[in-house]
Specification:
Layout: H1 2-42, H2 48-56, H3 58-69, H4 79-99
Helix pairs in contact: 1-4
């Protein structure tokens, strides 16, 4: 009888783990789509000259470094990091669904 509960518990744990892994893969998929599409669009002839100007703009570079400095990959549970990840995942999902 006890073995039956133990086997059920193991099956439940495996199902939960598989669901969590699938959710993580989906999130990673959306982030990857967002990165690839962003990289592709940054090569757009209309946008590229403006991007080159921004890359040389010292004030913008300092602002960007300050913004990125607020993110901490070693502490993903921090409120700002969680909010940014939700925004990126939603944007990636929207782009994925639009291009699918």
């Amino acid at each position: 009888m006890m073995l039956k509960y133990f086997v059920f518990f193991l099956c439940f744990c495996n199902a939960s783990l598989a669901f969590a892994q699938a959710a993580n893969l989906t999130d990673a998929k959306y982030l990857a789509v967002l990165k690839v599409v962003t990289d592709h669009k940054m090569e757009d002839a209309e946008i590229k000259p403006d991007l080159e100007k921004l890359r040389e703009h010292q004030r913008f570079k300092k602002e960007l470094q300050k913004m990125v400095g607020k993110l901490n990959n070693s502490r993903p549970s921090e409120a700002t990091n969680r909010k940014i990840m939700r925004i990126l995942q939603k944007a990636g999902k929207d782009v994925y669904n639009e291009l699918k």
